[in-house]
Specification:
This protein is mainly alpha-helical. 50% of the residues lie in helices and 7% in strands. The structure holds carboxymethyl coenzyme *A. Carboxymethyl coenzyme *A binds next to loops.
């Protein structure tokens, strides 16, 4: 492997260091490029730009591989739970029994939010999208912990991490309760992380709520699959905001906003909207495929395609496998699952999707399971946020732990007016 890359520019040669990752990922280090040559690189959408080195998550998009801290996603989805996977991502190793107990206990201990925050919900219209509420409520948490917001103090960060993990879950469930006009259900700390969330979502004070272990298991699996995906749009946002030394809650809130868009986490809601639309049009999947291929039509097949995966997204594979199992356990026959399968089959046989290597991504089948659990469609992206939270935290922490933090600040190629004199209003046409 070469140690340097040669760059020839304006008759001069420059030697740029080459970096090889532990899975053989090759990179050219251009950190001194502008200082030495006066040039910058231009890379719309950052498809060729590495913004950091990281030890958290490995993806091979060509082979469809995803690993957290080296462990294949299939093993974690099958054998781990969300709390353990969160620990793995954030602290770097699987916890031993005592570490896991302590971590779970700390999460339970921090499950309440300040009672005053309950009043915030009353200010939102009942039609407010829960992602809008989530982003602002998470940022508002900063107001309640002014003494532990310093990102460069590991002791303060350690206090904030379980708070963020535990409280985001409570905020999410409360936003649902408020939107349907039911009283909020306080966390029940005798329950595990996912069971506690389901209880806050679906229990009512007037009835006993039975935890369904199948639903808990499905939720554990879905959250694990969403827990990290290296430098995706929201995680890069969390790192960028964090690089200014913004506190953890503010950084995560920015990540939630980035996740909301339909090209990112908002795709899970968009997929279900699309499937419902196809269903109401008589289940015509061919028309959807045709529209997705039409360059004059802005419609895209939601839940299809990925910047990194040029193969079947391994998360989608796992979710699809579980769809039938979970729906049949819950005795649900969902016509949308049938439409999704037919749509996938039609797309994977179509030369447009084959040539562009467009496969189902994590969002294609997840909504079908959320729907079976009773989670409303506008909460799907909130579920994604809940799952992605340990990843955001892990990256934010890694960035600060690595030391030598540099504020994230890309450059640009300016294409605007050259020097132009100001014209007083009276002289303008
Ligand atoms: N339907 C139809 N055509 C598509 C699709 C799609 N879902 N995705 C990509 N293409 C086409 C696109 O039109 C382009 O064609 P051409 O080269 O002829 O202009 C080509 O494939 C490459 O697409 P791109 O937009 O340049 O690729 P990207 O890497 O910038 O975008 C993506 C990736 C995920 C934004 C895109 O595939 C997409 O919009 N998918 C639908 C939204 C979606 O499902 N998002 C969830 C992503 S996975 C979870 C997450 O990260 O949050």
């Amino acid at each position: 492997m070469p140690k340097h890359a040669e760059l020839h520019l304006e008759g001069k040669s420059y030697s740029l260091p080459v970096l090889i990752g532990s899975e053989n990922e090759k990179a050219i280090d251009i950190s001194q490029l502008r200082a030495e040559t006066g040039y910058i690189t231009l890379d719309h959408g950052y498809g060729n730009t590495g913004s950091c080195t990281s030890k958290i998550t490995y993806i091979d998009g060509e082979k469809g591989i995803l690993r957290y801290r080296g462990i294949p996603i299939e093993q974690l989805a099958e054998q781990s739970n969300f709390v353990e996977t969160s620990y793995l991502l954030i602290y770097g190793t699987l916890p031993n029994k005592l570490e896991l107990e302590n971590f779970s206990h700390t999460l339970s201990h921090h499950s309440l939010i300040h009672e005053d925050m309950l009043r915030f919900y009353d200010g939102y219209p009942s039609t407010a999208h829960p992602m809008a509420i989530l982003a602002s409520m998470v940022c508002s948490l900063s107001a309640y912990y002014p003494d532990s917001l310093n990102p460069t103090d590991p002791a303060q960060v350690d206090q904030l991490i379980p708070r963020a993990l535990s409280k985001l879950r409570t905020i999410a469930a409360y936003s649902y309760k408020k939107s349907i006009g039911q009283p909020v259900i306080y966390p029940n700390n005798s329950l595990g992380f996912c069971a506690n969330f389901l209880s806050m979502m679906f229990a009512v004070p007037s009835e006993k709520y039975e935890i369904d272990e199948d639903i808990v298991g499905a939720l554990e699996m879905l959250l694990i699959l969403h827990a990290d995906h290296e430098q995706n749009c929201s995680t890069s946002t969390v790192r960028l905001v964090g690089s200014s030394l913004a506190n953890l809650f503010a950084s995560i809130s920015a990540g939630i906003s980035a996740l909301w868009g339909p090209l990112h986490g908002g795709a899970n809601q968009a997929v279900m909207e699309m499937l419902r639309q196809i269903h109401s049009n008589g289940g015509d999947v061919a028309a959807a495929i045709k529209a997705a291929k039409d360059k004059e039509n802005p419609f895209r097949l939601m839940g299809f395609g990925h910047r990194i995966y040029k193969n079947y997204d391994p998360r989608a594979k796992i979710i699809k496998k579980h769809c039938d199992k979970i729906l049949s356990k819950l005795k649900i026959k969902d016509p949308l699952l049938d439409i999704a399968k037919r749509l996938e089959e039609a797309a994977l046989e179509d030369s447009y999707f084959v040539e562009k290597k467009l496969y189902p991504n994590v969002d294609f089948y997840s909504g079908v399971i959320y729907q079976a659990m009773g989670i409303p469609m506008n909460m799907y992206t909130v579920m994604f946020a809940l799952g992605r939270l340990p990843g955001w935290i892990a990256h934010w922490k890694e960035m600060h732990d690595q030391g030598g933090n540099k504020i994230g600040r890309p450059r640009q190629v300016y294409e605007g007016e050259v020097l132009t004199n100001y014209r007083p209003l009276a002289e303008r046409k």
